[in-house]
Amino acid sequence: MGWATSDPAFRVKLLRFVDVLPSLRSSAAIAGHVRQYFRDDAPAPVRFGSAVAGAGAFRPVLSRIVRQGVFTMADRFIGGSSPAEVLDWLAGLMAEGTAYTVDLLGEAVLSEAEADAYLERYLGLIRTLGAGGPGKRDGVTQPNVSVKLSALTPHFEPAAPQAVADAVSRRFVPLIRAARELGVFVNIDMEQYRYRDLTHFIFEEVLGSAEFADWADAGIVVQAYLRDAPEAIGRLREFAEQRGTAVTVRLVKGAYWDEEVVLARQESRSSPVFEDKGATDANYERCTQLLVEAYPHLRPAFGTHNPRTITQAMVRTEAAGLPREDVEFQMLYGMAEGLRRAVHESGYRTRVYVPVGQILPGMAYLVRRLLENTSNESWLVHRHEEGDPEELLRAPAGAADGERETAEFVNAPPAEFYRAEVRSEMAAALQHARAQFGARYPLAIESDGIAVDEWDEVRCPAEPGTVMGLVGRASPQDGGRAVVAAAKAFPEWRDTPANERAAVLRRAAGLLTERRFEFAATMVFECAKPWAEADGDVIEAIDYLRYYAGCAERLGAGAELVEVPGEDDRYIYEGRGVAVVIAPWNFPLAILCGMASAALAAGCAAILKPAEQSPIIAAKLASLLREAGVPRGVVQYVPGPGETVGQALVSHAGVDVVAFTGSNAVGLEIIKAAAVVHPGQRNVKRVIAEMGGKNAIIVDDDADLDQAVSGVVTSAFGYAGQKCSACSRVVVVGSAYEEFRTRLAAAVESLIVGPPEDPYTNVPPVISDEARERIERYIDVGQREGTLLARGSTPATFTGHYVAPMVFEEVPRESVLSCEEIFGPVLVLYRTTTFGEAVEVAMDSRFALTGGVYSRNPRNIAFARREFRVGNLYINRKTTGAVVGRQPFGGFAMSGGGDKAGGPDYVRQFMVARAITENTMRRGFAPEERGR
Ligand code: NAD
Fold this sequence. Notes:
eight-stranded parallel beta barrel, globular, alpha/beta
């Protein structure tokens, strides 16, 4: 570990290697990974080991040494593999006068079956410790277990606290009933910040109930690295006061620091944790004081390995006159033993946090401990047992973190539905959207009051009996009128300076940000998008507006050319002309807005032709763009059927660009139609066509299956599989197959299929009855040509277009199920022997849109980067949810031909380039400066 502290690159490799090791099922696999991880850039003895790993004879020996090494390391932090194994050790600890709490390590819980298994393990633990296990029944040192509530349900979804509380209680209540009966104390552990309020909510709901309100043997954790930890203590104090029975609070620094910081940066949010250690320590001291003041309603337990923190806690509790038996200090198993003994000798109760479990499921815990022990920021590496006492006891600097430097383009952050106030805003927006049902949405072409012969009803996919609104149906003639108006308005917009066009788009982004919940709510009803999906659609649209505004400014400056004296050479870009934007319903705002804002950024006039299923959100977008300052003729809204007005627009002689996103069949038709030159036409049309996919994810035999199962489920069944990027094939390599298929099947069977309005829903209904019938025809093929592995449920009490999520295996590779885009919640599972074969299966498609790989094998990852040729390849993450500017999106082959949306080249497609050269030399005299 010394090497890991001093060498950051080696530290990363070591942590990754430790993470993958338990899943390596043969000595060849271990030797192979050692070689790949440590061949270069490692301390000499490790490099030597990795060099000999190549020789077959050494493999068994090497793999034994390596396994032993890591298991010894794990032994330092993990008490044993089962409760029975640690009983003697716990008894010894108690004999010394030290208490304990046992935590059961486990895999991520992805299904009801896994949550049941977890509960059984906990009940077993409680029985083992309670029935004659070490600890006094009547004293403060009674048996003590630590529980993670996320392990008691596969749906720990913070956006739906009541539903989660109900689900968790079904397991949590029997657990604490058993604990109470057997005199076992239960402490609730805290995990990532997004689960914090949810955990409090469940804790309060259950412990505040009539059955448990007088039970004093319960506690909860507060993490001092959180900026709002003092508020959490305030909330707990209020709860305990109302309840009338004390609650123990374990105050810790917090174990998810790295993850919180990284996620906040990825989501452009300010971090919920202090980014420097001094500020965390200062907050710990603030929280200590609050706990002391909240006594006896709250009973403090200080989880810390820092002598300064311990000392201040002793001083504060003594000064306030807290009895020592009501104060305790907790330390992790295997860490700071000397310090624990010293605290114990000063007459305080100490408690050891003992994780128990198999090393494979315990990996996440072990990696967190190793991170903590090898981080230079960690207090532990300062080796307190040898360090300078003055330095160690110095008061922490309560440094405020500086604001993070912001780049020019920053992605819009997702809505924090884990906060009650954000949920209320969304709920209010849904109510408001419902109140608007029945409204009319007319065309918006240059002149107002265009009379239409027909109005189309838009019905909610989750409530087919409900008419959400009436939308004017544009005729082909209306389309023609819009083209003429666009052609008239185009030159002025083209000649508007790029920075002014950009300012209009940024204003639109601002308006959309203000109205984000209204727009999200519209999509919940119109397209059956669950909360998070609808929110994702809105922020993607905001990102496009801002990102393409930046592109407009960049392209507006023209391109650099070779410079020579006596000549002025310029290269400029300008809008092509009239752009027809034909969008699909599945990202009804993001894709429409993306194509339209790129056209507008480029200086084109845009005519929006939304999909028949999603014209209401499109009407809102068109009016928002006008409100932001896009001139009327420059953005127009022409809803109607693709076969009539859509086709008329594509064929119109006055159209210069067709930006289409949709199915392959329609895309190819449009390409053909746009190639036909009509009388009076002066331009060759530029067609940008983004089409379907048949995407595969490969699960390697060393993949982290917690990650792979949940990533595949999200990629395949999120929004009922109605995403072009959705995974519809999964290819599993070798020995991972059995475990993967079992866990996948249980996870799919546990999915919550329900209405999109309910934030607890995982899988909403599909867009229409026609879509449901089409998907069911594919399911029939699956039943005939393959074997059904898993079938999710459909809600009995709802009337929407529901399709149960399905997984098939043993489907022939040439079956339509393996080849065609289904666009529904249907997944096919294949098995291969090698990774190379898996890539071959994954690539066996005429589409090339997205692909995914779950692997911890560097060589296989490198191979996939080279050979798994798709538009967007995702390694160790889901295949959906591309982010503008970070994962520019789009495919090739039969998936499309345009440049990537949300990437640096996209806007360019809506532009023509002009080169202008002036000879500036007159009679041999040339100006010196080019004078641009
Ligand atoms: P679709 O092809 O049925 O319709 C797309 C649009 O084309 C609609 O606005 C429709 O009215 C219009 N249209 C239909 N026929 C037309 C014609 N003859 N002339 C002009 N316009 C016509 O697709 P959909 O069902 O709305 O969307 C789902 C499809 O979109 C899937 O295949 C999916 O993979 C694809 N998609 C691709 C991407 C991508 O970026 N590659 C993104 C989202 C969706």
